[in-house]
Amino acid sequence: MPELTPDFDRVNIFGLLTPNLGDDFSLLDCFKTLLCTKEVKMCEDYYVKDIYIIDLKNVTLSLISKVSLSTVKKLETCTVKGYNTRIRSIHIVNMPPVAEKLITLIKSAMKKKLSQRLNIHGTDFTELHKQIPKRILPVELGGEAGTIEDNF
After folding, report:
1. What is the largest CA-CA distance in the chain?
2. Are 56 and 15 in contact (CB under 8 A)?
3. Domains, the chain, ranges and CATH?
4. Of 101, 129, 149, nearest in space to 1 by CA
5. How is residue 81 annotated by DSSP?
6. Among 19, 87, 109, 130, which is most buried by a count of CB atoms within 10 Å?
7. CRAL-TRIO domain: from which residue to which, for each copy (predicted)?
């Protein structure tokens, strides 16, 4: 999101705009895009830590089956060690029941310090609003900063 938190952290929101993904959809390509974005942020942005919000609203069972635990672990290693990313928190919102086991698996593969920063909110954003001011969040997450589409 364009505005920093009071602690000067950058809020990053990830999610699918539509559940209708083609057969050629690649989660690995999404991870590559994430790392390219990280490169740009290193050169162009000034902030203290990252806050990640992962919106699982449009995630389907077929997409979950494409997730490789080893790839997620490599992404964590690359992001945290390679780019020296300082992560304040990770928030998972709009989690469908089919994703619960996947999140549990991913959490078990994460480093303990990082897994303790993982927060699951479902569709109730009350706790999210306690950690991130509403004025910074998009309307889709109960915020006041306009829609996600308007901000990007």
Report:
1. 41
2. yes
3. 11-122 (3.40.525.10)
4. 149
5. I
6. 87
7. 53-149
Per-residue pLDDT reduced to its tens digit, 80-120: 888 888 889 999 998 888 778 788 888 888 888 888 899 98
Neighbours of 52 (CB within 10 A): 20
Amino acid at 74: K
Q: Tokens 């080893």 label which residue?
A: 70
Q: How far is CA 14 from the centre of its chain?
A: 5
Rounded to whole angstroms, the Cα distance separating 145 from 151 reads 8
Residue-wise burial string across 59-75, b where 16 or more C-beta atoms lie within 10 A, e elsewhere: bbeebbeeeeeeebeeb
Q: What is the DSSP letter of 63?
A: H
How many CB atoms are closer than 10 A to CB 7? 10
Q: Are 57 and 94 in contact (CB under 8 A)?
A: yes
Residue pair 70/31 in contact by the 8 Å Cβ criterion: no
pTM score of the predicted model: 0.86
Q: How many residues does the chain have?
A: 152
